[in-house]
Amino acid sequence: MADPRANLYLIGYRGSGKTSIAPFLASALGFDWVDTDHQIELSLNEPISSFFARAGEANFRQIESDTIRAVAKSTRQVVSLGGGAVLDPANQAILRNTGKIVWLDCPVEVLVKRLRADQTQGPGRPPLTSLGVVEEIASVLQIREPIYRSLADLIVPTGSSSPEVLASQIARWWIRTVEPPKSQE
Predict the structure, then answer these.
(1) pLDDT tens, 128-151?
(2) For the segment 39-50, what is each residue's pLDDT rounded down to a tens digit?
(3) What angle (nearest 5°) sits at the alpha carbon of residue 49, between those of residues 15 and 17?
(4) Residue 176: is it exposed, middle or buried by C-beta count within 10 angstroms (0-12/13-18/19+)?
(5) Which residue of 101, 125, 131, 160 has the fewest C-beta atoms within 10 A of its own C-beta?
(6) In angstroms, what CA-CA distances link 76 with 27, 106, 147, 155?
(7) Is residue 111 part of a domain?
């Protein structure tokens, strides 16, 4: 059993609902909420998409790893991670050693809809390939899904339930499996 003060990490493809679910989940558990992408943007003082385009993926991934290492030093946090944060084996070890991991598994058609909506609402997430949205999702998921699956302590299908409902489901799992039973005095 994990330390009940451990972190709860949300992983999944971009657009899977990590940032939407995290604040509800943190509130339900009485945890802090950290979004690593937001932390990175604050430290860079620019959107990730701008930095990614200017400095490249390798530089972004290094900053992402540094951010994960720093965040993991605290406990009792719900941490929403960028979709590619799990690619680095060092990041995987940090996540496994400092908390429980929940994979938000979202259907491709929902991801496509969400990512297309993002593109119409200002600077969205940076493209990861030169492919179209549907082809990019399929290509990237082919690499990432086995990693998400191998890391996950819990897999939660998303796409048809509200963030509040999904957060409640995850919170019940956490309390049932991670938190120690309350002593009866």
Answers:
(1) 556 677 888 888 899 999 999 999
(2) 999 999 998 888
(3) 15
(4) exposed
(5) 160
(6) 11, 25, 24, 20
(7) yes
